[in-house]
Amino acid sequence: MKILIVEDDDSLCRLLKATLTEQRYVVSTATDGQTGWELSQTSDYDLILLDVMLPQLDGVTFCRRLRAIGSQVLILLMTAKGSSDDKAMGLDAGADDYVVKPVELRELEARIRALLRRRTATQSPVLEWGALRLDPSSCKVTYGDTLLNLTAKEYGLLELFLGNQQRIYSQSAILDQLWTDDQPGEDTVRVHIRRLRQKLKSVGAADLIETVYGLGYRLNAAFQAATTAVITPQSTDSALSTDSLLVPLESERLKLIERLTTLEQAVQTLLSSLPDPTVRQQAKRDSHQLSGSLAMLGFPEGTETMQRLERLLYQPHADRVALQTELAALQQLIKTASQQPGQSQSLQAGTNAPPPFSDANSQQQAALPPHVLLVSEDSTFTEPLITTQITAKLQAVIAPTPSLARDAISRIRPDVVLLDLSTQALPEAFDLLAELADSTPPIPTLVFTTPPQPINRIALARSRNRYLLQKPMATDRVLNLIHQVLARPQAKEAKILVLDDDRMVLHLLRKLLETWGLQVTVLSEPTGFWQELEATQPDLLILDVQMPDIDGIELCQQLRDHPDWSWLPVVFLTGSRELDTIQRIFSAGADDYVSKPVVAPELIMRVFNRLECTRLLCSQAEIDRLTRLPNRQRSRHQLAQQLSQAVQDQQPFCLAVLELEALKQLNHQYGHAIGDQMLQQVAALLRQEFCPQYPVGRWDGAEFVLGLYGLTSQEGSQWLAEWLTEATAALQALELTHQAVEIRFRSSVAHYPNNGSELEVLYETARTNFAVV
Fold this sequence. Notes:
Blueprint: E1 2-6, H1 10-22, E2 26-30, H2 33-42, E3 47-51, H3 59-68, E4 74-79, H4 84-92, E5 97-100, H5 105-119, E6 127-129, E7 132-135, E8 140-143, E9 146-148, H6 152-163, H7 171-178, H8 186-202, E10 209-212, E11 216-219, H9 221-228, H10 236-240, H11 246-270, H12 277-293, H13 301-313, H14 320-339, H15 345-348, H16 360-367, E12 371-375, H17 379-387, E13 395-398, H18 402-411, E14 416-420, H19 426-438, E15 445-449, H20 457-462, E16 467-470, H21 475-486, E17 495-499, H22 503-515, E18 519-523, H23 529-536, E19 540-544, H24 552-561, E20 570-574, H25 579-587, E21 592-595, H26 600-621, H27 632-649, E22 653-660, H28 663-670, H29 672-690, E23 696-700, E24 703-709, H30 713-732, E25 745-752, H31 759-768, E26 771-772
Parallel strand pairs: 1-2, 1-3, 3-4, 4-5, 12-13, 12-14, 14-15, 15-16, 17-18, 17-19, 19-20, 20-21
Antiparallel strand pairs: 6-7, 7-8, 8-9, 10-11, 22-24, 22-25, 23-24, 25-26
């Protein structure tokens, strides 16, 4: 756990750092508010211990700034002022707790532990990986019945791995997490890893932390499977086998034999007295594809045969003797493939590839039916759902009131909540909605009402709920909505789009990449590339060089010229090792390339390295530096995704556009520094009201665009008008200049489906209907 102490008393700051470091926390310090603010923006902290009276930037303003930009970091305020008004001001600013100095260290430590427990209330307090147990409350680590004596950094390493059990940590990421002010070199990480491994080895866990070549370190899944999985006698071997990928590859081997046989027949036709040009063209394509997939399926000797055959087929008058030689080699390859299953040397050997990211607990949870909580006193609404829950493969529980619902949630966390507002007191129901939205992760909720019951949809939207439905509703329709919510894809590491005309290569790449937690979409026809690109919105493209209809290098050049996709990282697959081809690849704008046959460790290393570089660049390129809001490109993607979700859910959607009219006047009279401050304040107010539930971005100059899911045009306009009134008053009160400046906004709202179903259409409609507020 990382803690930032912002305290201007040097002696107290040193004492707190020493005390918390002894408690195994990673501690950074700052002696003024501005330095503390800069640290909070450059590193992720679990908790900030913040003095109120600070030079340069006071603690309350510091706290308000953090909350204004959407930061959820825990904040514990410290001050010598103990009046109720002072405490209320600190808590209203967004602090999670408040202590009055002088405070005993034991009490302060207890408050810190309580805050950190509250943040992880939905997680098990004890971190486990097989027989390894780490108890944060006592800072004890055991393996089986043996207590391990670890240093603070060794403990921090284990806590880091156990807290993010599926993640691979690079050495630089470990340095960022476990070291604060003066970071040592990466050699230090290797030293601590080696010492930790030695201590684990002494208790029988020598390989518990594994090295992933070129990427970093992670927990070894075999230890968890060996100690926690329920393994039957029939499944013991397969559960721990490092060759788990061979089972599905066997079916591909049979397809491979069929393709090799087809190619053999084509070569025999070409050797006949009447060779067919069409057959030659298909044979060239088949030999090219097979050169990439043979080694991946365990027949590396076949790759050279295919490459030689492909070169011969490109010659109009190929040497018949050479063709006959390659035909004999092809026939021998078919015989070898038919006699024994292939063992994938490229995709398997030395990959350190993990089994799919699942363990015994997650498998058991996946086997259980989804848990649905019905909060309603209306038996005509709940009984049909209960009676059909068996056929719908759901487990439903009824809680008539919000208080009983809280009791039910404390025992079993539901996957979906159905809240019937027609039977509840609205203040208490809205409190429950806020709690469901604030849980980690948020619990999706379907809200039902009965016409003409008056419901404030704006208040409902502010509670971050997306679904407002009307009773009565057919039971089948309700069940379909539940399943739609449950079917929402879980967030994955990254999205990858693979374009290759060889379906076998696509299958193998998908399996390999998905094993590493990546979301993979494959495409074998270049003609549908642009449509799939827009639908998938990938983080990285893997692209074959030679394909029918279009050359991969030409497609990469088109990407680099496209205004929306010029940033997309491209990794090429190529069977050619010629210098001219490699130069053409990089000249077209490629980021990297991998030679066929694909070697799994090399591909994984290059994909993850490219993704990490892209994330660093995107964090700088997609955020407007002045306002810290998403820029036009990033915001457009977010808004398009929310609009698409509204279409899928059959919910309304509003696109609001607003512009600060006073900016030009401010810049002209007082300089751009004053105008920049005004824009920063507008952005802070927008974040405070709408983020993180609703996407907000700065598009041009003083123009801001936001999306309001679930609201009609009238409701969106009303909410925006309320915010504009409050924002205008807040900006007017800033007194940034010596004389009053009239603050005015222009704004408008466009609505799906009334004003269109495309984001650009909604934007142009809103701009056309601009009105001064």
